[in-house]
Batch of 2 targets.
Target 1
Amino acid sequence: MNIDVLSLFQGIATLVGQDPTFAVARIVLMLLGISFVYLGYKGILEALIMIPMGLGMATVNASVLFFPDGKTGTIFLDPLVTDPSALVNILQINWLQPIYTMSFTNGLIACLVFIGIGVLCDIGFVLARPFSSMFLALWGELGSVAVFPLAVAFGMTPQEAAATAIVGGADGPMVLFTSLMLSPHLFVPIGIVAYLYLSLCYGLYPYLIKALIPKKMRAIQMDLKGMPQITPLQKIMFSTITVTILCLLFPVAGPLFVSFFLGIVIREAGVKPYIEFIETTLLYSSTFFLGLLLGVLCEAGTILNPVVLKILILGSTALMVSGVGGLIGGILLYYFSGKKYNPVIGIAGVSCTPTTAKVAQKVVFKANPRAMVMPLALGANVSGVITTAILAGIYCTLLK
Amino acid sequence: MFKQKRQWWWVIGTCIALSGVALVRLLAPEYPPGTLRLAIKFGGYTLVIIGLFSLPLAMRKDDE
């Protein structure tokens, strides 16, 4: 009996039969995927995203097969199908296509994650120190603003530039939403780069802080005794009024605002069944599918797009500039307050909730084990989410 | 929260913010693109910020 081994193992056969560049890219992505799983397990990268993403990335690049028409592809999903009849066909073949089509292309997944973030956030920290929180959050947007003209200078269209610049806001769902709204063709590389970099925030920002803030300033102990107590009703009223005003101003970003403030209102209203459902089932299932689908979208063909290199450079620049911006805001508050404000809190203005707040507390704790900055850092952090959503709204309103 | 002496802060803050929205979304589009339109929009956004910031200020005064 004559058995064609290569047709039996089509993953290998496609590797041999493809353009060598694609074959090498596939092998690199498989190894990268395996590394992400390992680094996620070790806690170096964010496990919640990186384990499903790494596994998706490794397996999608291994599962390439020959179709009857001679072309190669996978039966995971096809992000480029737009023709309705082709979409109906492919929904019955590709196993992840229903989730992608129903939750990614319309931004639903970003909104679901945002409801979860809203439930986890306590807006009371913002209301207790509104001016300092918003001041730091505005400085924490420096990268999202400064990288926009830079991206245009790199040859991107204003829509692509805005979708790339918003990576500086360090808010995954916001990046997904903005790229889906403004440049859906770049949604995959921007999403991957954003989530990859956000995982690195936890590792790189402490070094940035140590490089820019002297130890004496990092060790400043904050007075938390004077912080006013905000009642749940006050938080609910503030959230309801704010979201209504923001939706009136930026209807395009309405789904994002509603999702975030809905989470906050549910939390403050104390509706326990909803809180438990959102905090656990909804948030974790959304994060799981977000990670898995981002990994699955990481096919060699997508990564070999030359624009990915630009996004890599501009995305990292945006995040670094935002980090520096937050710290500049912190230093300014340090001087405005008569050298009583710990400037490290500024890094929490970058809205990677709650990662940057944890980074601030960790760095401060190392400089002074008795210093507590977490409540103020969380205030800046939640403000950062709001300012990033507003900036996304401005970009979408002006450029869509 | 709704102590008699403070409830007006909520109403005033909301009204200021809403008047800002009206400037941005209703009045500004009526003018041709130019300096005046930009100025109206800027004024509108400023009113929104002032309005929203007056709400947490009202809360702080409740507790003090």
Target 2
Amino acid sequence: MLIKVSDNPIVNTSAKLVAVAIIMFAFVFVVMVPLYDVLCEALGINGKPSGQVYTAVQAKVDESRTVSVQFIATNNDGMPWEFAPTATIMKVHPGAVNGTVFFARNPMPDAMVAQAIPSVSPARAAQYLHKTECFCFNRQPLDGGMSAELPLQFIVDQDIPSDIGTITLSYTIFDVTDMAGSAAIAAR
Amino acid sequence: MGDHHHGPAKGLSRWLFTTNHKDIGTMYLWFSFSMFLLGGFFAMVIRAELFQPGMQLVEPAFFNQMTTLHGLIMVFGAIMPSFVGLANWLIPMMIGAPDMALPRLNNWSFWILPPTFLLLASTLFMEGGAPQAGWTFYAPLSTTYAGPSVTYFIFCIHVLGLSSIMGSINIIATVMNMRAPGMTYMKMPLFVWTWLITAFLLVAVMPVLAGLVTMMLMDVHFGTSFFSAAGGGDPVLFQHIFWFFGHPEVYIIILPAFGVISQIIPAFSRKPLFGYDSMVYATASIAFLSFIVWAHHMYTVGMPLAGELFFMYATMLIAVPTGVKVFNWVSTMWRGSLSFETPMLFSIGFLILFTIGGFTGLMLSIAPADFQYHDSYFVVAHFHYVMVAGAVFSMTAAIYFWLPKWCGRMYNETMGKTHFWISFIGFNIAFFPQHFVGLAGMPRRVPDYALQFADFNMMSSIGAFIYGASQILFLYNVIATIRSGEPVSDEKVWDGAEGLEWTIPTPAPYHTFETPPLVK
């Protein structure tokens, strides 16, 4: 066959199979993990909006349509922060740049670092919700007892299908204080 | 091998240092049977707690440890090693080879298993208890919320994966290089075929499982976030990788069972297997399809419609080659000169019950219906019909079928038939009602349940106790056969049996086929 390691056919077969096993082990890390992220983002599956800052394109504001955007804030298990949207619903026109802020307060005595993870529902609306600025792009540190207003700017794409009248943008806030020392996490 | 014929060494060192495929096969079989009893004991704890609604015997956390260990031990400790043991015993004898291709590796792949499972069982006594995230150990249950024993668990999975990969490499190397002259691929017994394909599946997916637990290890100890949303990871990724391993894994378990049944049914029908070629192609098709259907285990995670449809149709497609097999077995029996010794009874039991399990599998493959069945006792009933009545029944049939050949003594037929009927009846009492409670909404992996499920659960527990007790009879029968069974000396123990393993003397000598036979 293609590769010949030894004159002993048994050693040859075994060597090839060991190679297959090693390749499959690498396949998990090199192919499956990145492919999953790429697919989720490309297809907008899983309600994952793009983690990238959106650069606005020349777009007309479609004043004939109004889309409701709802905001939900959730604390992950054990996360003590107060975390809430200042407006729970906004009625926006596709193409227009909109801004809002989320309120966050660290009630604990010590400084903490938080990371908000967004999710969009319905999932297929994820690709039509563009964020030009989001507190979820970075970790949010807060000293003990301090509060902050976390900004969010977004555009609903003018190509959004006409049957989507309401988009829900949900943020779950995680305590990443322990992780904050390690390498920077992917901005989501 | 030395230049003189020698028998087995004496004492413990025979077993520790042996490179003989028959010795290693025997050790695999005894080890897997002891794991079967241990996993079975855990199942008895589960069924005892579920005997009545309410919490009676164990704490919920301990109950979860029982379900987790029961699954892990049955899959990785009982079923998989038992078929590896069977492969060790039979493949060299079936293809006319003197031993496995890599005998020392063979010794090692066995001997790393017992310490591994000892370690896994010992997690029960650790602080925080054994793993309790279920045998599928989904993140974040197995990462963020796991006890300290998760690290031991990860190590165990690594080692037993290594053992499986080494065992598979050995089997492939043996089958590809050591067949007797004239033994072409399409003349190989089906048991050898199914194991060859299974071994390829193992080499392909056990590293995926190893990769998965490596990611868990890094998430737990080294601050990565493969499965943690807070760090940009995704717990759903865990499920995709797990089932990319896990679905081929279920065929790894069942394909050798298909091979066993394809040897036994022709022997007791006194006819060659119907449709040999189509059996080979069906096995290969099932193996291929097993790689593209994994997400049918996770219809409810929120896949796009196209994904649901793809995985649904691909899964239904598996019913075609599996149907080919079932019809071939039935056609083999058709107008055969049937007799119903214990191995045949277990094979027919397999045929009927596995087909039921296949049908419920087809029901579960329907994506819209699965939203109702998902994570319910219906799933539990389904996979016990294919795992127990499929893999375990065929394994039991195999032991009754080949044991006389191995040890030159016949088992007690009356006791064997009694074992079959108690098993068959006990199994159905245990698992058939679980279809009903599942459809009615009882979730799996719960230590307590709503009152309306009480009757069926009690029935199920009684059936499980009956089935469990029948295995003691089996153990007794096997030991009694080895120690004092009626001697048999016919090379063909069964008049209808065909194949090279029936051409050597009975009991099978320690070394066989040192000169390869010529296959015409």
